[in-house]
Design goal:
four-stranded parallel sheet, two-stranded antiparallel sheet, 8 strands
């Protein structure tokens, strides 16, 4: 298919804000190729998302935007080089099951956290790919592959993978933690959530 334009992607962020999304997860991007329209949409969501009204006053707590850092093994030295390095974003790299930076993960001072994922010669994550109520029948990203089939403890039809890896696997782990943080205190700002994740992570 054709790639979406920056304006189309920005519209998707706007739609998410209109729908009052709390945590917006993104496992895509091209290092060094940020688009201004998308950056503006992310900043707007961070600053104007999650409105709450108390009496006559409406406060905007901000949408929590989470981005995978990518899998090229780059060190990001500049803020804004990738969407994951924007100050309005929780940028997520990957660690492995030895609590070490995954061999492929992009990293750097502007990446907020690492989250568990797979790595060479290490375990990976298990992820299911289920049909939905709308009749979605195509296999998604996490379709089971060779070595995944035949484990009835997970799914008798093999619609799962035991090898979900990359920063695209780490990113939803961090987003889930952000959602749990908001479930404890829904009045935290997006900035609060980012700081909580950054300052409570185990340093590895």
């Amino acid at each position: 298919g054709e790639l979406l334009t920056a304006e189309q992607v920005a519209t998707a962020f706007t739609f998410a804000r209109q729908e009052e999304v709390d945590v917006h997860i993104n496992s895509w991007g091209r290092p060094g190729a940020n688009e201004a329209a998308i950056e503006d949409a992310i900043r707007t969501n961070f600053n104007e998302g999650r409105p709450i009204t108390e009496g006559d006053v409406t406060r905007r707590l901000g949408m929590v935007v989470v981005f995978a850092s990518g899998n090229e093994g780059f060190e990001y030295t500049e803020e804004g080089f990738d969407y994951s390095t924007m100050p309005e974003v929780i940028g997520v790299g990957a660690s492995n099951d030895d609590d070490v930076l995954a061999s492929y993960s992009n990293y750097g001072v502007n990446i907020s956290v690492l989250a568990p994922s797979g790595d060479d010669f290490h375990g990976a994550l298990i992820s299911t790919d289920n049909e939905d109520d709308a009749g979605y029948i195509e296999d998604g990203y996490n379709v089971g592959g060779e070595g995944d089939s035949g484990n009835p403890e997970l799914d008798s039809q093999g619609k799962y993978t035991q090898t979900f890896s990359g920063t695209s696997a780490a990113c939803p782990v961090a987003a889930g933690v952000a959602a749990i943080v908001l479930s404890v205190n829904s009045r935290l700002t997006a900035r609060d959530v980012k700081l909580i994740l950054e300052h409570t992570c185990e340093k590895i």
